[in-house]
């Protein structure tokens, strides 16, 4: 996947000069006058590009195009008759095959904007089916039939893909959303439906032919196509392996287009789905525009009919009831009640439920919610009671922790059973010690040990020693925890 140098002149700095030269060579090639000389190019550039275009610039531009493979030069071996001819060296230039391909691509991109719209051609599909049937029956020479099958299949595939790409493009999509599209709606829908009906009626026959292609003499076809390539006099013939790869790849593409592959739908299925979606979209737009047009139609007759009803009303109250039934309430207000209702299901009748209460407040720019000061009674006895209860809980919690200290030390390798509440406290101390520890001079050869002092919530300090190289198992009331060897020493107040 190297750089394609033949397209280099389209993106360089002096792109306008190179494109003028290549377009000149391409036009002369189409007129079968492909050979040009340096003075011809120089004269054309001074007319089309700039009168100040110099001979040095034309030499540079032509040489660059030759280097990139767009042009080829050849020197004519004649005796020069002047200094000018000697200096020009009688070089003649001609556009290469790569240059022709690039210019054709540029020409199609710039001048044939709508050339690739494609079509849904029923005749092409029927012709492809007939060629495939003749191929599997081998009533004619398969070597002569195969290029026709290949070309017709390529045309059907490209035309259908281009047309689907065209009708699903943003440009056509925006045009469909205009009222002018209503003129073409029937033509679009009928065109798509006719093609779908024709392709669906032929699909089963295609599947039968595709299945029969497995019994086709592939070696005979490959040998025949290779022999036809050899009959064309060329210096570099294509190898048989390349011919075999092309034929097998084209056969596989033909099968995939109608049958698909494992895990992926066929191109036929995608084509049916996209055309069906387009028909649905078009009919939806038709309904939308129909509703829009109906909305803006004159309602004069309707209002005259309603006026007759009001004229027949016997009282003003009857007319008001009729008005509210036809046009609804003029002014409505909706309120949200935050209180929960007694409904237990969405199917409950709202008229049978207990109504909620809505407290109305002032509304407006200067409206403020009134805040009333509420008094409270300071209950000193209850406060002392809760404080004493809290102190008892703290004392019990401290005694529960202190029972694990023996001579001011907790060795986790010697604990017989650890309760869940104390385990949470100890693990919090260990995590705090590990997090605040700053290693000094620790290497891979030294033992990884952590020693850190921390202040606990129980009004005393502890020194935590963690040996990361030794693992111990501690029995808890709800299971066994595996952790590094930890020793906690109590410091400070006893």
Question: In percent, how much strand structure appears in the residues?
Answer: 5-15%
Q: Bin the helical content.
A: 40-55%
Mean residue pLDDT: 80
Which of globular, elongated, flat, extended, rod-shaped describes the shape?
A: extended
Question: Helix segment count?
Answer: 16
Topology order in helix (H) and strand (E) letters: HEHHEHEHHHHHHHHHHHEHEEE
Radius of gyration: 46 Å
Enumerate the strands of the largest sheet in spatial order, edge to edge or round the barrel. Answer: 4-7-6-5
Largest sheet: 4 strands, antiparallel
How many domains make up the 3D coordinates?
Answer: 3
Structural classification: alpha+beta
- How widely separated are the two ends? 80 Å
Model regions low in confidence, pLDDT < 50 over at least 5 residues = 442-446
Could you give the count of β-strands?
A: 7
